[in-house]
Amino acid sequence: MSEPDPNASDSELRARLGSLKSAIKRAEESEKPGASPVGEDKALAGAMSSGFRAATDLAGGIIAGALIGYLGDRWLGTSPFLLIAFLVIGAIAGFRSVYRLGSRPTSGSKGGPKAN
Amino acid sequence: MAAGGGIDPIHQFHIAPIVELKPFGIDLSFTNTSLWMVIVLAVVSAIMVYGSSQRSVVPGRLQSLAEMAYEFVAATMTGVMGKDGLKFFPFVFSLFMFVLASNLLGLLPGSFTVTSQIIVTAALAVLVISIVVIYGIVKHGTHFFGLFVPSGVPGWLLPFMVLIEAVSFLSRPVSLSLRLFGNMLAGHIALKVFGGFVVVLLGSGAVFNYAIAPLPLLLAVALTALEVLVAVLQAYVFAILTCVYLNDALHPGH
Predict the structure, then answer these.
(1) Do A52 and B234 touch (CB under 8 A)?
(2) A10 - beta bridge partners?
(3) Backbone φ, ψ for residue A37 (5° rounding)
(4) Most exposed residue of A51, A89, B62, B188, measured as fewest CB within 10 angstroms of its CB?
(5) Does B244 touch chain A (CB under 8 A)?
């Protein structure tokens, strides 16, 4: 450590500075909103959760649309037009949820479309 | 048991009252669902209270379990919502531990899976969405409804997109409750069906059936392993989606 050679201590300092910088960067990344949790297990869990979400978001949109349409029909007595309309809207909403899930930024970038 | 002498895979989800309680004509009976919810709460409380009571520097088993659960949920929450999302930590942690414990306890033979009842998961999902809506409106007022207005959409398309976004928002509690309920229901039915195959084959009396009886048993073992994974994963998905939805209430209109 206490080497008199100025070049050696300089490079040593630079290395320490570099490792510190990367440590700070890592800490900042992990505190940023939208940053993906690190680790391979988490990556697998994240991928599987995305799969589950895509499957049920699609079904959920259609079911929610059907529910809204059915209740609206019963309320306004316009059976079956609201049911048909909201089934289509619900299906579109389901597809949009899946599309948003697929197009979200994977890293912690803040600029892209809203991670949802 | 079904009429044909086989095994009814749906019977495990039957809700039976243990103590009948019907004040003012409202059915408030203490059922097997209630009993298992109490058991789940007792197990979670026991693990967390006992696990956090020792406070040793080198944690024991229960303490490290409690610490791992805490750190996992905290890391997930900061990952999705950032530091200021941690004000919801008690809520998300309770949800995660409740779902995780009821999923895992439901895998014990002879137990009852609370999360395989759609009314339980729907109540949890409605609770999450209510908190999102109420917190969002209290904190941001009408700005919260900017959530329904996507940016970069031409004006003539905007009313239609707002309608779709609103339906999409309303579909969240549906898909949130459906996902947990469906996975638990399907997994338990599949386990029961393959377990039933073993019983039926062994009870049939034919030699050939004895020979192939181990095959569904092997599948049931493999399915049990898969179900453990699904139980943990569904609790994780429920927690992370709660964080995603709460994030909308914290930072709407990005």
Answers:
(1) yes
(2) none
(3) -65, 140
(4) A51
(5) yes
Cβ within 8 Å of residue B18, ≥6 positions away:
B29, B30, B31, B32, B34, B35
Number of domains chain B is built from: 1
User: What is the CA angle B103-B106-B111, rounded to 5?
Assistant: 165
CA distance A37 to A31: 10
pLDDT digits (tens, 9 = 90+) for B184-235: 999 999 998 998 888 888 888 788 888 888 889 999 999 999 999 999 999 9
CB spacing of A34 vs B80 below 8 angstroms? yes
Contact A61 B163 (CB under 8 A): no
Q: Cβ–Cβ of B179/A53 closer than 8 Å?
A: yes
B31 DSSP β-pair partners? B17
Task: Report residue B18: phi and psi, to 5°.
Answer: -95, -50
Predicted TM-score of the model (pTM): 0.79
- Domain of B190? 2-250
Rounded to a whole number of angstroms, the distance from the CA of B208 to the nearest CA of chain A is 39
- Rounded distance, CA A97 to CA A92, Å? 9
Give the position of tokens 């095959």.
B215
